[in-house]
Each structure stands twice: as C-alpha cells, then as structure tokens.
Amino acid sequence: MSIDNEILLDAEDDAREVAFIRQQLPQELKERFSDEDLYYILDLLIDYYTSQGIFDQEPDADGCVDVDLDAIADYVCRQARKEQVGEFEHDDILLVIQAEMDYSEQQDEE
Question: Are 45 and 80 in contact (CB under 8 A)?
C-alpha cells in the first residue's frame, strides 16, 4: 500500500471516529465542540497515551489496560489552555474520552 493510500485511510478512519464521538455526545456538547476541537482532542489523547506508555502496557486477562481518565482529562484541559486552543470543561472531556474508548473497543471487536 502506498503512503498516500495509508494517509487517506487514516484520514477516513479519523473522520469515522469523530462522527462516532459526535453521535455519543449530548446535544449541548455537540454544539459546543467543533469537529476541529474533536480532532485536536484525539491528537492530545494519542500524545498522552504515548507519553505515558499506555500503548506499551500489557492488557489484563480481560484485555483491558488500566488508565486514569481524570488524569487524561486534566492533561487535555491543561494542554488546550496552554496552547490557547480553548477552555474545556473536565467533565465534558471525560465524555469525549469515553466515546473515544467506545469507538476503539468497537473497532477491536470488528
């Protein structure tokens, strides 16, 4: 597969993920978060998972990896504020994180 095709497939998957997250959010948050906000948050999640070695952890017997959702939400809020992207509410970010995890779980099942 060419690099262009890989990039296209990644972009398509990212678009599906953002659409899935948007469907999972309450109406109030659907209006508050733009697609660009959600892409940004997803990028921060990957940064966090990578920097904390979460991708390298061995899953438990149920296939789960223990993560601290509050720490992740704190990181996203702090980075968004630091990078002057926006002021996100901790509880709102938790809902986005949960939707992202639901999407990932669904993809793992397919």
Answer: no
Number of residues in the chain: 110
> 7: number of CA atoms within 13 Å, CB side?
3
Cβ-proximal residues to 91 (8 Å cutoff; 6+ apart), any chain:
73
With vertex at residue 15, the alpha carbon angle to CA 6 and CA 89, rounded to the nearest 5 degrees, is 130
| Positive or negative torsion for Cα 93, 105, 36, 76 | positive
Tell me: the pLDDT tens digits for 32-70?
999 999 999 999 999 999 998 877 777 777 767 778 899
pTM listed for this prediction:
0.85
